[in-house]
Amino acid sequence: MGKLAFILNFILAVFPSDATENRRHVHVIHKGKKRNKTHRGNTVAKFWIEKEGLKCIEIDWSNLSAQEEADIIKAIDKNWETINKQIDKVFAGDKVTILTLNK
Question: Where exactly are the structural domains of the chain?
Answer without folding.
Answer: 2-100
